[in-house]
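Aim 2, interim progress. The first record below pairs a target sequence with its structure tokens.
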Amino acid sequence: MSINPLAHVFTPHGNIVYTANDFRQTVRISVAGTIALSISTFYNVQYGVFFVVYPLMLLSLVPVFNRHVARQFVFSAAVNCVEMVLIVGYLSQWPVIMTLVVFGLYVMRFRFMSKGPLFLLGSMGVVCQSTMLNFMSYPGTNWHTLMFSNMEACVMAVALSALLHYLIPGCRTASAAAAY
């Protein structure tokens, strides 16, 4: 299957930069999103947004998969759950203090994103924190279900990423093969 006709349609200039690795990554993202949406729909989970966004985010932000990526992703979700319980549970009585603490966490996360090795930790924290704060602002939200859905979706995203990187590996070019 050739991607050249499609690349010519979507590239306004003659320099086509959509490589075979890009195509494989696009397929991994699409398959993971479809599987995650199917699972969340089949089980009718209350917070399906986590199940769809996390695999898409993990596969699109990081072109490789290794233990460091998996640890950062799961650790960030766990830390965010603890932070949200502490922030909303203890500081919701004082909105100004809560806003300052949340702002400080966003500053810290954007600082992580500006540093290379902790980019995924920061970006996952921004997405998770904003989504969970939004859901937790409603009085009828069951926090246990929210936290469990967040962690379950995170583990599923890591598993899908590992599986799809195994089933649809990236192409090794001659220069990349020489580096090994």
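The second target in this work package is listed in the same format:
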Amino acid sequence: MTPPRRALVVASPYSEGAARALITGAASRGAMAAEILPRTRLVALAASLPLPSAAARTTFGRRMRVLRDGYAATRPHRVERVSHLAEMVLRAGLRLPCPGLALRASYLSKVLFDRAAAAVELPEVAVVLGFPGACLALFRAHPDARRVLHAVDAHPRAHNGELLRHFSRRRTWDERYPGRLVRRIEKELRLADIVLTPSALVSEQMARYGVDRAKIVQIPYGVSLTGFTPDGPTVDRDPERRRLVCAAHLSHRKGIPQLLDAVRGLPVDLVLAGGVFDRRLLRGAPPNVIITGPLSAEDLAREFRAADAFVLPTLEDACSLVVAEAAASGLPVITTDANGASALLDPRHSTVLPAGDVRALRDALGRVQPLDRATRRAIADSARTAATSITDWTTYAERVLDVVLAEEGRQGTDARAGSGPRRERN
């Protein structure tokens, strides 16, 4: 018996919102879909271990319950779990004391995942969608399929270039892409029939570094704004001081050193919410900085409701959706022209600064005023209307599928027709 043809196969080296939306959207169209994911048996086993009642009430215990529930869920489409080795390398890398080595372990795990994904039998596959650094072997294994590179990040040379423009080579070694990975991603870009980008910023980077504009398809990400509202539970704060919040992976790339310099001595409190890439970044942080660590979506929404503005002075960001979540919570947003998501915002309630300009950032932070409830609600309302380019994940998936599944079985520019997504041709 001949196996069924699968219109779309998504090979994702990690759980990602856009990939999940595409699988769901393809299934809703009646198209067969398959998903290739890395094995997570080690995590699943850890999540299933019984915990003493005291431990179950800790943050660790809550995270284990979330993992357990997630791995207990079933999917209606075919799911292939591949590569125990990729999982082992990734888990071992997370325990390394040097963040640069940990990041390189994650790159290696993607290569191992890619090799295993390429070995999965996918008869007559029509479309394969892969991720940067994790789809070279997959693309080579399916030369007759339409190959879509989901460019979730900046072009690797642009990423490295922006870090070196603002910091020394030694200071940014941990965060820069190694040369081997840069070359690997560039090979994937050459093999791809479609390069799917989330912002004009990334589209221009791709074209600047040699990607054919005719195969670049620009579709902004969807955003789930559920829970991000101006009304609801909040956190305690000093009512006499203005309060700023920055939610990000705290790193050089996100502009955290510039932010700490800008906020030093200002009569404001700055909340830094997110994982810390390297603890050395926070040495000497001024006393008006509050570090919370990673927060759940619910806790982040509480922080947003207590703040007077959101700030993300990123130096390179393909499309940071947290700015949309902050706007939906009623916060004015301060970000940079290096954030692809800045195009999603209502210009009446956002400030876009030159990336790396500490003086401009300090001036913008100093102008932040206390938010009243009416202003907060007005900003939140505008984030959910035609005043912005914010859409949900369902709309995003429909726009992508209109392109990648069009005229199934045909490749090249003929398959990339459509009026919805922006095509890069000039």
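The first helix runs from residue 17 to 28. This observation will shape the mutagenesis plan for the next reporting period.
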